[in-house]
Amino acid sequence: MTGIIDYGVGNLFSLRSSLAMIGEDCAVTGAPEELSRFDRLILPGVGAFGDAADKLRATGLFDAVRDYAATGRPLMGICLGMQLLFEKSLEYGEHTGLGLIPGRVTPIEKDIRPGLKIPHIGWNALSFKKSSPIFRDLRDGEFVYFVHSYHATDCGPYVSAVADYGGTLTAAAERDNVFGCQFHPEKSGETGLKILKAFCKLEG
Amino acid sequence: MITKRIIPCLDVRNGRVVKGVNFQGLSDVSSPVELAKYYSDSGADELVFYDITASAEGRKLFTDVLTRVAERVFIPLTVGGGINTLEDFDRVLKCGADKVSVNSGAIRDPSLIGRAAKRYGDQCVVISADVKRVDGRFTVFARGGRDDTGLEAIEWIRRCVGDGAGEVVLNSIDTDGVRGGFDLEMLRAVSEAVDVPVIASGGAGSVQDFVTLFKTLPRVDAGLAASILHFGEVTVSDIKTALRAEGVNVRL
Is the complex ipTM more than 0.90? Predict the structure, then answer.
């Protein structure tokens, strides 16, 4: 069974519906002590990094998620949930993340051609940097849906997919059992469902 | 590179899709859930649902429809119509909407956009403006094109974006439902005035209208379409194939 972590940040409706669509049992939980009962976890999130990290700490989920990842079971962060996997973020100040993947989260502004709109909103193509179990059913160039103004940097060896937006943006990163998608698989049509399905087949 | 988006728009009244010509003479087209699934399968990048219901019973029907669509269709869903308060945002977001579009509600309460953006994030808030030329001036209309607000459109849209609206839907009342092409003049003025995505609405009558839109105005990010798609003469995939042939980047 897959657990979706609820810490009051963002809308879980689509994620729950997409897991139901692919026939995966899932439950939403905000209780740190419950995480260990799941075979894998998804950390979603929309909004600002600092607020989200504070909420994770206030609820005790910060340590619980780190402990869970240490067991070797699969963990996937989506959008802000992906950014939280890194060591720190420079969004409105400097904030400490979960530190499960080396790297930091910085504004896309400095990595793209001037004059492009920010946030990076819409469908963009994935270009894979290495083979990943969650992308095993995808072809290079498949489109996924992005909405973000920050992305992970200084995480070179852990980048699994990038997207071109007048510069190279980190679209996905992973380290061992920890996976991050900057885009929204639950909003990326059939391609997104294939990613979620592959993730839900992973065992710790 | 990011693709230009093609967005079918479904006007929903009492749980059914309707599409009017210049906002009058509404005619029933089909079931929202079936249409949403069909559009998603044929390559729609996003869907917009406008609730044009007035009654409380209709509102309930609308959120039921939305829930059923969001359970089956996994592309971004924007909801508009009858959004006047943060509670309205909450109501539709809980039923699976990803973005909420505000029109008359923002005119009545100019603090709404700022408060919604603070609570749900800029990416969630869309300003939808119904604009018509009045004595040569782009003027914002409220209540489905019925009330002249006297507001100058560019100034109004800039203000909404400044308050936190993350996208702009520009609906030209002058070209809406006429199917003679998008309002390029109005779209140019708006897309040059703001730095957030601009979605063109009103006037799509042929595949060529989308080609003309994106070739003429590269700063426009997406095109909305209703009647041209609902009657099945043209598919989303026809539009995208034509765009790609003309060198416009699309998801196909």
Answer: yes
